Amino acid sequence: MSFNNGIAASPRRQGGPGIRQIGRHSGMALLKVRNLTVAVGKRTHLADIVDALSFDLNRGQCLGIVGESGSGKSTAAMAIMGLLDGKSLEMSGSVVFDGTELTDLTPREFRRLQGSDIAMIFQDPMSSLNPVLRIGDQITECVLAHHRSSKKDAWDKSVDVLKQVGMPDPVGMMQRYPHQLSGGQRQRVMIAMAIIFKPRLLIADEPTTALDLTIQAQILELLKALSRDLDMGLILITHDLGVVSQMCDEVIVLYSGRDVERGPTQEVLEHPKHPYTIGLLGAHPSLDAEDAMLTPISGAPPSIWRRPSGCAFRDRCPQAEAMCADQVPELATVGHASHQAACLIYGGHVSPEGETA
Amino acid sequence: MSVPVLRVEGLSVEFPASGGRGLFKPKTTFKALSEISLSLVAGEALGLIGESGSGKTTLGKAIVGLVPTSQGRIEVAGTELDVQKDADRSALACQVQMVFQDPFSSLHPRKTVGNTLSEPFRIQKTVESSAQPGKVAALLQRVGLDPAHAARYPQHFSGGQRQRIAIARAIANQPSVLVADEPVSALDVSVQAQILNLLDELKAQENMAMLFISHDLSVVRHLCQRIAVMYLGRIVEIGPAKAMAASPVHPYTAALMSAVPRVKARNKAMSKPIVLKGDVPSHAAIPSGCPFHTRCWLYAKKGQPERCRSEVPDLVGVGADRQSACFFPQEADPSAAGA
Ligand SMILES: Nc1ncnc2c1ncn2[C@@H]1O[C@H](COP(=O)(O)OP(=O)(O)OP(=O)(O)O)[C@@H](O)[C@H]1O
Ligand SMILES: Nc1ncnc2c1ncn2[C@@H]1O[C@H](COP(=O)(O)OP(=O)(O)OP(=O)(O)O)[C@@H](O)[C@H]1O
Ligand SMILES: [Mg+2]
Ligand SMILES: [Mg+2]
Question: Which domains does chain B have, with CATH numbers?
Fold first, then answer.
């Protein structure tokens, strides 16, 4: 199977072997993220929320980011978008979008990119919409901020995009205030505002959590079409492994700020190697299953301030051994060439059969 | 049968229509809920699913008295409660709690989490102030959060963590009915499993009844004995969860069931999703006859029967404990019909 992916292996933390590129087109990736690290705390007392994340994203490609609540998914996304709260969080590493180093941009230059070339659908629609502005005014204002056009054109464009995201009675919706919309309708307003300029890079943070399945299917289809027809790069943050399976070419599994497994989606979902990924799959309720008890991964994810030494997952890992406390496992190839896992026990080995169930 | 802990009968809610342009805006309203009836017995979970904007949140809010109703009645443990009356309202607050859909705006940004969680104890005077910190710590632990984080503010928590704080607040005083509006949709599968198991436990051990609003069918299927499906402000199908997942008797339910994204590729080929065509109608202009007919695949397949356009189908019994609002309940299961 040929696989022209864009995820590159990360040079893990202290002095890794340098960036190993995989795939034919990695040289012209739309987005290159290297050693992205976000820390919280005072100078003397820092903790990493995101720890040395690296990946490439090609045009027209969809990358899924999954991981437990609090693993740093939204923080990584906000860092890429230049939207981190600079007062409490500190960022390092490099984010290159279409040849431009984003971390060097002035806030003004960044704002020009945001919304037109790169856009984000935020996890929480209510706090990103202005409660005292009608939906129509918010969208047209956003259009006018980026494009010189008449008010009438901006209005028409807004109605169009609301229609695209499956909003009932788009003209009537333009007159309403955010609190007069249902949860899924607000989410669709956010999606509409993010795709209105047909961005080249879209980061969607849990974009369909408030949508029913038929609308979810419609929105996912729309995102897929944008990505296919306009060569848009898409980063999809979600906890729904079914959605990942349906949408993403590749997937990164984050645990406590670190990528613990990554590779082509079907490969990772069908032959997971990291015990954490295996646990995630076991916790996924299924429509077809009988009333089986769900198996949550025992314990809770570690606080970033009290991450265990070595492998961060080891206290919850059914397979952990003494050596897991000694070193942070590096990503290593497992089976398929671009399928990697960071596990001392399974990393680099072919794991026993029967754990994909 | 035992007295239901919650009984809703003929409940309707109207909102002012903001549409209408020009000088003479008509002061009209639209029906966000029309004549909803349902009941819950102790220890039972009823899943409420349906189209985005169909009125699920509105129904939940009407039950806890946050949205005025235009018609119908609500009984809690056999007593009718009128939310206009102060006494009834506080009785309601004791017994019925809601976890809101938006975990971000439902927490006070300037209150520490500990403060937010001890509020129910203070307001309803259920726990002495000296015992409150211990109770708060136990609550945090119960939803899988670190008790040491009680001193933090909501913005220092991730989306899923905030959702769990909201759940902890709702169950603080052990209500007899919990209305949970998408309580796990912001959670990853592992924490989700933890919360679902917690809800299961509250149901089984504390006999809490739940109205569980979710668009995630696998989750509903897992937690709930019965499911109600809503479309445009009405219940279009209600029945036992198992039977509904296996063979829907309303074409909208069938479309929902078929759209579940599966993890395994092999399963994906098995069920072809039914894609609903046509625009989603708005509450302000509900189609004549069956409100679903404009997008119904069965209506199309059957050569657009006149009856679907002219007559509103009632919710009628179709088999044990099961009701559907479709004229052709025997044909709504695409797999059985061999479509
Ligand atoms: N401004 C901040 N100050 C301190 N800690 C923070 C801040 N923002 C985030 N965190 C912490 O960083 C961790 C990661 O948060 P993030 O929102 O990125 O998680 P997430 O993976 O998106 O989770 P979810 O799936 O629940 O949305 C969490 O433990 C959170 O408490
Ligand atoms: N305060 C309000 N004023 C006017 N219309 C409203 C108000 N609140 C909700 N609506 C409308 O009533 C309908 C039902 O909304 P509700 O929030 O109950 O939907 P829902 O089923 O919870 O949807 P979702 O799954 O998207 O959360 C929607 O069409 C919505 O636009
Ligand atoms: Mg998040
Ligand atoms: Mg809702």
Answer: 6-17+28-224 (3.40.50.300), 248-337 (no CATH)
- Closest residue (by CA) to atom 5 of ligand 1? B156
**Chain A residues touching B58 at Cβ < 8 A:** 182
Burial B226-244 (b: 16+ CB within 10 A, else e): bbbbbbbbbbbbbbbbebb
| Count of the separate structural domains present in chain A | 1
C-alpha R_g of chain A: 21
Cβ–Cβ below 8 Å for B161 and A70: yes
- Measure CB to CB from residue A184 to each of B52, B146, B276 and give the nearest one: B52
A210 vs A79: CA distance, rounded Å: 24
- The residue among B50, B57, B63 whose CA lies nearest residue B102 is B57
d(C-alpha B123, C-alpha B145), whole Å = 23
**Does residue A335 fall inside a structural domain?**
yes
Task: Report pLDDT digits (tens) over B45-56.
Answer: 999 999 889 999
Is residue A78 in a domain? no
Rounded-to-integer distance, Cα A297 and Cα A120, Å: 30
Beta bridge partners of A65: A237, A252
Residue A270 lies in a domain: no
pLDDT tens across B243-282, in order? 888 888 999 999 888 877 766 544 444 456 777 877 788 8
Residue nearest atom 31 of ligand 2, based on CA coordinates: A181
Mutate to test the pocket of ligand 1, among A48, A69, A74 (most ligand atoms within 8 A of CB): A74
What pLDDT does B309 receive? 95
Are residues A270 and B264, on separate chains, in Cβ contact within 8 Å?
yes
AA letter at B331: E
Q: Is A330 among the domain residues?
A: yes
Contact A285 B189 (CB under 8 A): yes
Q: Is the pTM of this model over 0.95?
A: no
Distance from the Cα of residue A145 to its chain's centroid: 26
Give first-to-last CA distance, chain B, whole Å.
40
